[in-house]
Fold this protein.
Amino acid sequence: MRVRFAPSPTGYLHIGNARTAVINYLIAKKNNAEYIIRIEDTDRERSTKESEISILNDLKWLGINWTEGPDIDKGHGPYRQSERDEIYREYTDKLIKSGSAFRCFCTREQVEEDKNKAMAENKPFLDRCRHRSLEEQDKLAAEGKEFTVKFKVPENEAITFDDKIKGTVTFNSSNIGGDFIIVRSDGGPVYNYIVSIDDALMEVTHVIRGEDHLSNTPKQMLIAKALGLPQPEYAHLPLILGFDKKKLSKRHGITSVDIYKQEGYLPEALMNYLGLLGWSTESGEELLEFDKLVDLFDITHIGKSPAVFDFQKLKWMNGNYMKKYPVEQLTDMLTPYIDEAGFSTSAIERSRLEGIIAILRNSCEILSDIKNLIGIFLNDINEPDEDTDAHLKEDYALDIIRIAAEVINEVNETTYTSDFIAKIKEKSPHKGKKLFHPIRAMVTGRLSGPDLDMAMPYIGYENLKKRVDYAHKRYC
RNA sequence: GUCCCCGUCGUCUAGGGGUCUAGGACAUCGGGUUUUCAUCCCGGUAACAGGGGUUCGAAUCCCCUCGGGGAUGCCA
């Protein structure tokens, strides 16, 4: 069994494509199959080397290890379509000579007009160049007339295939839009054409791709048939949608795998989420590490309907994967984000850093969450956010601030951790929420956060005093 | 327009004629723990797109409508 992922290097790795890559990978792993990467860079205008590199990097980061690709040629290369022109040219000649394809010299306007006419009459579009003889075509071409090469679609022929996800799908050849371009006027071959050739030549046995390719499948089958090439099995994955049920795009949130990486999502969480999207396990278990995911995966379990991408659930999953790491390792993972927040981790004692992270870790769902939390410990003073500010203006909060301002001078470096809160409690007319919430707000600058008793030792007496004094000055 | 695909809680899904007063997860709400918030534990709200059939019986089969998506000459 051989599967492939064929990205087009015209941008970053999109989360929807990543899903396709992941599903292919699960299948490959499950069946011990070869996993081929093929770069579909036939769009010369938009394809870039940088984007090929970034896509490949993102795939690696996700944990996908291909067995064949641009960097690993096992005799089926080249693995970039831009390097396979000779191969395609040969097939194109073959198709033209056999009459399965023809050169079309019509202008865009002419074709548009003909198409509209056919559409209006509800008849299949037949290209006006499709009957030209080879000699005639040669003559026109020799005259220097611009042409495209088109595949001659047979009339009224049933095209059926058994899609592994969608079931049996049938098209009528008269209904797929008529003769279609396989080579552009600039000589560049078109996706729908060479995908058939490459899949066959690379001996791909199972084509698993997005549903947006479903309507292209009959064209590709026709090509393979005309060329006498083998047909792969097909499976079309339902699309991933945004919250408004429209195809997932930038306005729905993050769609670039690279950004997920930057924001501190873990590759194993993304793998889990993407791999599980569209189906569920028998037990209902959802937190599945890679091996288990592979073990339980079965493409026939994937549903037929599109799925809305649930960012919250991904975060939930990510938080769960973060919990699996020991503090030491998690600290290493978090360090870049703490630095990014403007603190110099290299200047902080390691044991102190790990102690802080042990306290903060449960409040994080993604690595970058630490950026908003770490200031609780590392800042001298934390400016209260809007809600906290409002809270600190309450009468009971003001009482607590005044008391704290006294108490802070009654404790010292060594006693504050146990006595600061205790003494406030003694003097306070308030208890419960009206006691602890103001303390939290005053000390951390926010309404929620880690357990105060746990946090105190890591805040330090000096900073505590600064914060109390600041609050006293600001609010009283 | 035409062709193809799809339609169960807000979201991901289980369920393939009776065991469905429709199950699980995320989110949400409530309770408990925490002398505070969060975490954690427990519990609740919430769905078969609509209409016709077939059948003793339909979320499950068929048809229509509606809705969404995709393809339909030089994106993949």
Q: What stands out?
A: The mean pLDDT of chain A is 91.
